[in-house]
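tl;dr need the bound structure. longer version: we got a ligand (phosphoenolpyruvate) that a collaborator sent over and nobodys looked at where it sits. i said id run it. heres the input, straight from their email, havent touched it
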Amino acid sequence: MRGRLVAGNWKSNGNLAANEKLLGYVRANVAGLQGVMCAVCVPYPYLDQTRQALAGSAAVWGGQDVSQFGAGAYTGAVTGGMLREFGCRYVIVGHSERRSIFGESNAVVAAKFAVALQEGLTPIVCVGETLQERETGAMEQVVGAQVDAVLAAAGVAALGSAGVAYEPVWAIGTGKTATPDEAQAAHAFIRARIAARDAAIAAKLVMLYGGSVKAANAGQLFSMPDIDGGLIGGAALVAEEFMAICRAAERR
Ligand code: PEP
């Protein structure tokens, strides 16, 4: 049986006082979760605060991006080794905001994925189509190319130590959620694409849905056969809501 994971993506949000409350709530409630890994992916400056708040609890943490280069003359870039020093287990790569706002191509995202693994992190690679791509019937072509770039850069075996988040761009931060059937269809497509290379790796790959997940819709989404949890943006900033989403990922 595949593991379950709910990861919060704080994006460029937070401050020391608000984080303390949020992390304190996560710490106080995570022990009660059955069979669900709970992670928070925080802005870099808050990694030390996060480590101090969550160390010794069942919750884990990570970064939201990583350099595709190692140490060296890359001003502003943060390496996987640095994230490891602050206790990160996970790192998100290829979030649609990195792709669209910061211009990251499929090749750059795939390079980040490969480097994150080499540096001892578990990458969660985000894939997903825009509304226009969905409406023109290009979802499979777009998402397939995003997945193929990772397979080409890192090899299919790498997906045995990683996660994939399907995040339709039109559902991120918009309040529009893919229906459970739409999300399931995309997850099944991605899993099948990976299974064509290695069925065993595909069967155990943890796949998250992301896009306006709330406590009210999480249960239905997480009950779909190929959805193993969620990548949560806005709702991850609301302590009770985030932990309710984590509980919705428990198997019943
Ligand atoms: C995200 O940014 O990864 C995300 C899914 O955001 P939201 O939950 O706010 O749609």
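gonna send this back to them w/ a short note. The chain has a mean pLDDT of 97.
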